[in-house]
């Protein structure tokens, strides 16, 4: 029997899939996620068109692996490709629901801060190809918008897509620069979705302590598993989470909002997929916010 060919992942495969499958997921799971404006959904659509247009060129396609190339080829062949994947492709419905909840919760968090007359100076930490920052910049005319990503190739494509859709791009900074700006009050709001679980636990804890001490407004995602025997790499277990809560200020705020956000997340997920217990049985997302 011939050996099954292993899937080769490129640098941009996961960021591309997160963005392309987000759009149909926002429609499929509309009753299970935070409401989004027509303008936001329209921006996501134009953003994905811009991404595909940029990444189909030979210059950037070199950064795509098997999954990324399949997405590009399928999308160019049929406008319904991403929708069909979210409906039926292996694991895509599950993950795209997570993208939709994560994205809609982030938008709602930022919009509520803006509506409550907060003058936000915002950074998206680990932005990948998420259109979150340019959407907030474009719809709410906020100039102090920044992004952090350590892959220059992703930064280049992201900036091109943003310029193509909205005529400008958020500024890119390093985490060290973000810390400097937050300390001097030039940043006051941070969203970090899908990035901390790629960082080792000790560094995650250091980042969370800094965010809690220096950012008045934050929404961050960590991974948690209460089964010590099954906890994955870079995932918090109960002991580690308790240690974190004991080590930072605003303990009650962190603890209570973690519970509230997590219950809301699980409720939304289980309403959309009542037969799936994935995020109860394995590593699952916890959102911390203030």
Features:
six-stranded mixed sheet; 57% helix; 290 residues; alpha/beta; globular
Report on the structure:
- By secondary structure, this protein is an alpha/beta fold.
- Helices cover 57% and strands 10% of the residues.
- It has 13 helices and 6 strands.
- It has helices at 13-28, 38-55, 58-61, 66-77, 81-88, 92-115, 132-140, 152-166, 175-183, 201-214, 238-247, 251-272, 278-281; strands spanning 122-125, 145-148, 171-172, 189-192, 217-224, 284-289.
- A 6-stranded mixed beta sheet has the order 3-2-1-4-5-6.
- Strand 2 (145-148), helix 8 and strand 3 (171-172) form a beta-alpha-beta unit.
- Helix 2 (38-55) crosses helix 8 (152-166) and helix 5 (81-88) packs across helix 6 (92-115).
User: What fraction strand?
Assistant: 5-15%
C-alpha-based Rg, rounded: 19 Å
Task: Indicate the structural class.
Answer: alpha/beta
Which overall shape is indicated by the principal axes computed on the Cα atoms? globular
Low-confidence stretches: none
Note the run of SSEs as H and E: HHHHHHEHEHEHEHEHHHE
Please give the largest β-sheet.
6 strands, mixed
